[in-house]
Amino acid sequence: MSTTSFDRNSLARWYAVEHLKTDPGVDEIYYLPTNAPEREIRFIEVNSLIGELEDNALEPIDFGVDFGRESQHKLLVLDVTPGQFERICQSSLPLPNGWSLDDAVPFRLKSDE
User: Fold this and answer.
1) Domain range holding 31?
2) Tens digits of per-residue pLDDT, 4-21?
3) Is 112 a domain residue?
4) Quick one: 28 exposed, middle or buried, by C-beta within 10 A (0-12, 13-18, 19+)?
5) Interval 34-66: pLDDT, tens
6) Cα distances (angstroms) measured from residue 110 to each of 8, 17, 23, 28
7) How many domains does the chain have?
8) What does the alpha-carbon distance between residue 101 and residue 57 come to, in Å, rounded to a whole number?
9) Helices H, strands E: what count in the chain?
């Protein structure tokens, strides 16, 4: 059985750029590769258009991609407000179990200035 080459970092970059272009509320995205399984892409999306949820309701959404194919992988997205992200950075709001900001890769829309 052949295996499809899976470049998680390139795919994460592509997803981030697409999400930033299509979701006007997303100000920045952080790709969290540390501790993630090989075929899992973890994002924190800082979204200024979502309402503040209870902190205990923070749960990533699982966008299973290419399910049942050799290129199958998971895209997990945790949407947070700017205030929640600030608290995550200050370690006063925990990330989901196993997630880490270590080596986080930020993505932002480039300004047209």
Assistant:
1) 8-107
2) 577 899 999 999 999 999
3) no
4) middle
5) 999 988 999 999 999 988 766 666 789 888 776
6) 22, 10, 14, 11
7) 1
8) 19
9) 2, 5
